From TrEMBL:
Lineage: Bacteria, Pseudomonadati, Pseudomonadota, Alphaproteobacteria, Rhodobacterales
Record protein name field: Thioesterase-like protein
SUPFAM superfamilies, per database record: Thioesterase/thiol ester dehydrase-isomerase
CDD domains (UniProt xref): 4HBT (cd00586)
InterPro entries according to UniProt: HotDog_dom_sf
Pfam families in alphabetical order: 4HBT_2
Organism: Phaeobacter inhibens
Amino acid sequence: MTDSQTPDFIHEIRVGWGDCDPARIAYTGHLPGFALQAIDAWWEHQLDGDGWYQMELDRGTGTPFVHMSIDFRSPVTPRHRLACSVWPVALGQKSVTFRVEARQDGTLCFEGKFVCVFIEPSDFSAKPAPADYRAVIEPLLRADLA
């Protein structure tokens, strides 16, 4: 990624001993969770502190995931903070796609795409992306580099 393509938002995660398996690396099952934590933090940053909890309960819009794909590049360990870069790469009528790239000490550990759909929480039906969400997402859209 070049400097002009560097995402505006990076969420750091402290990987702990308890996140690891007997091989002394982060358990594979935790890595999607780390990415989702970073996306939730992205929303909180963009929506003045409102993450998924407030989005659904206070703002009336849920965003469940309908697709996740992750490519693993290097093991994640407790040695360094996991710096997760997050940015939106696509905004459809009823969905948004995020890219997450996670690095430790400058080394790319995993990268992936995460697609969520905007829903009405009361009946779980898809709905158009709310205008205030579009206003936040559209200026931050970046090409998917993969």
